Structures are given as C-alpha cells and as structure tokens.
Amino acid sequence: SALVNSVSENFRYNMLASLPMTDSLKASSKSSLSLKQGDRFIPSRSVANRDLCHHNLLSTAQEEDSNLLSEEVESQYKSTLAKSIFGEDVASPEEHKILSLKNKAPAPSAAYQNSLKVLYSQNLSSQKRSAVTVTSDSYQTLDAPGIVDDYYLNLLDWSSANILAIALGSSIFLLDCATSTPRSLYEYEETTVTSLSWCPSNANYLAVGLDNGVVHLFDVARGTPIRKLEGHQGRVGSISWNGFILSTGSFDSTIRNWDVRAREPLVSVFSGHSS
Fold first, then answer.
1. What CA–CA distance (Å, rounded) separates 262 from 6?
2. In sequence order, which residues have a C-beta less than 8 Å from that of residue 29 and are 6 or more positions away?
3. Are 217 and 229 within 8 A, CB to CB?
4. Predicted confidence (pLDDT) per residue in 165-176, tens digit
5. Would you say 154 and 166 are in contact if contact means Cβ atoms under 8 Å apart?
6. Global pTM?
7. Distance from C-alpha of 246 to C-alpha of 215, rounded to nearest angstrom
8. Whole-angstrom Cα distance, residue 154 to residue 145?
C-alpha cells in the first residue's frame, strides 16, 4: 500500500507540472513558498562595519558597569558620612535632617549652664512697670530776688546730697530740699557771682566763679572759701568738674584746667575761641 501511495503521489506531481501555469496557480505557489520560508529577515552584512559595531557593543557595556560602580561608591560614601555624623546606629540618613521644622532640638544635659541666660534675662521683670506721670505744675516755688537775668551765666546747681545752690547777685544761698530749709552760705561785697558747680565726687565742695575772673572753692560745712584760683581776665561764666580737675570758662576766651589737689593747681590753658 505504501508503494501504491508513493506512485500515485509522483504521478499527481508530474501531471500538475505538465499543466500550463495560470495566474491562480502562480499566486497559490507563491503563497505556499512564502509560508515555507517564514518571516525571518536576514540583512546584508556586506555594507556593515564589524569593527565599529564591536566597539559600540563593548563601550555600552563598560558605561553600564561604570555607572553601577559609581552608584555603589556614592552609596557607600553617603553611608559612611552618615555614620560619622549621626552615629553607628543610624538606619536611614534621610530621616536625620540638620534643619528640621517638625522635631524640637534635643534637650541639653543637666550639667549644662547657659552663660547668656543671665545676660539677657537680668533686666526682665515679672511685674509690669507702671507709667510715670510727670506733672506740669511745680510742687514748690522759691523766691529768688536779685538773680541776674543773663543767659550765659550758670547760677543754679543741685548736689548729690540734695542741696540746691543758687546765686542771687553777690550772695550764695543753699536750700536743703529734704527739709525745705534755706540758708546763706556767703556774701561778696564788691563783685557778683556768675557761676557755681558742686563737686560730683564730694558734695561738701562748691566751686564759685565771680565777675572779676576769680574762682573760689568753698567748704560748705565750714561756710568759707578754702581755695582761690586766679588767672582769668574776664567773668567766669561756666564751671565743670572731672574728678578733681576743675575746668573754668571765661569771657576772656580761655578755658583753664585746675587740679585742686596740687600746690600749683593750673594744669593747662585752652585758648582760641572768639566768643
């Protein structure tokens, strides 16, 4: 039977081959040929540069390896840096931020002392300060007859012992502000008092400038002048203390500095102003 089948197949193939090819037969033969070949495309390698293709393959592989290596090195560097900053037990460095707006700063140790706390909190008070009301009305009025009406004279001064000194013409009066008790300190005969100033370091001494250019230093407890300073050629209209150095300004355009402790008290003279 196998022999009969083979003979019949050969006979059929020969009969078909002897027949003329029509359009339908040509199309069916082409479709059967395409099905036998499949859809695989084999390009022509005559125009391809094999050396260039090999180089491109190797360079791409090397870049991928280097990228993997750099990522591994960077990850290891970050991990080492995080451990050195945050400690060995750090799990994820991204959770430990240097500046954080959510978590509070860690509390200091019990032995820590903030030296700036006293500096910035010593003026703070738990109680609010009450507003001080300054009245425009005087609580006491003094009668000062004979006071010289001259803007350039300094005829009133208040000591640290709450004693008010005032020059009335040729007389000097003292007022104890605690008891409101006035008393006369000294009275000149032929000259006028033009300035006076208390010594800030010792409220027992009062410097007095006169119209004739002389400066007297008074001991208030004794009520008499204990020092006489001469040198000005005009009235002494201003007096100022700096420790035990007394500076006097006169109408003669000079400023004289005196050391009231020294035997020769004149220290220096400033001149040059014209008014």
1. 156
2. 21
3. yes
4. 999 999 999 999
5. no
6. 0.51
7. 10
8. 16
